[in-house]
Design a protein that fits this description.
247 residues; globular; 80% helix
Length: 247
């Protein structure tokens, strides 16, 4: 394992030069206007991820706990976001998510399975990135995607996201599979590589909060959720947030 880690580190240490080369090629072929396009891609991605983290996840939690889901969802976001942002790895975030589940009084038998499993297969942020990347690259290459092609992208992006390992940057490698499914040139991945670090931070954060949300729902569905602990923790969080001084 140490030998493999050393080999991977050696390869990764060359990555900045490779990425610089890829960005140089992309900019020289498409002109500086490509940066406006990157800005649009980032805006769409941030919008989609914010929708999942701040609207979809709270709705899912609300259907299970039937009370204000925001304190819990914000706690998940706060605890997991920072680690996910800097490590860019769902796997590295497993202990953080487990501690959160313990604090919420969830059953250890449940979360010790769902959190590691979620860190490997539950990757909504990655699927969003892959969908947006396909549309961006198709537009850049002037390729029209039919409705059938878009449906194929939805299916392959979800499948590729499930197959993505919870470590930095793998979502972009799996993008090759999604591109292949609709006949986009794999060279288009180079256009994403240049901004992948930023995209990876956002998608990992969404991936890990999803794991915690799904675990809460699983606990409720399997009736192992200690509703008293859970509700009182939610109320404490609500109280804490109402007392927090406004800046
Ligand atoms: N870094 C992501 C994660 O660990 C995977 C990806 O590259 O999309 O969740």
């Amino acid at each position: 394992s140490e030998a493999v880690t050393a080999a991977v580190r050696a390869v990764i240490s060359c990555a900045p030069f490779g990425i610089l080369g890829l960005v140089f090629t992309t900019v020289s072929e498409n002109g500086l206007g490509i940066f406006t396009e990157y800005g649009k891609v980032l805006a769409v991605l941030v919008g989609c991820m914010a929708f999942v983290a701040l609207i979809l996840n709270p709705i899912i939690v609300w259907t299970q706990i039937k009370s204000n889901p925001y304190p819990l969802v914000f706690k998940c976001l706060k605890d997991s976001f920072i680690t996910a942002f800097f490590t860019r790895s769902s796997a590295a975030n497993i202990p953080v998510n487990m501690t959160l589940c313990e604090e919420l009084g969830l059953d250890e038998d449940n979360y010790s399975i769902s959190i590691p499993l979620g860190a490997t297969i539950n990757m909504s942020g990655t699927a969003i990135m892959q969908g947006v990347a396909v549309v961006f690259v198709a537009q850049a290459f002037g390729i029209d995607l039919s409705t059938n092609a878009l449906m194929t992208v939805v299916i392959t992006a979800v499948t590729a996201a499930i197959g993505t390992a919870g470590v930095p940057g793998v979502g972009t490698i799996m993008l090759a599979m999604v591109f292949e499914s609709v006949g986009l040139p794999a060279a288009g991945i180079a256009m994403i590589m240049g901004v992948d670090r930023i995209l990876d931070m956002g998608r990992t954060a969404v991936n890990v909060t999803g794991d915690a949300v799904v675990t809460m729902c699983m606990a409720s569905l399997t009736k192992t959720l200690d509703r008293n602990v859970f509700q009182s923790r939610n109320e404490d969080l609500l109280e804490e947030s109402s007392k927090a001084p406004l800046k």
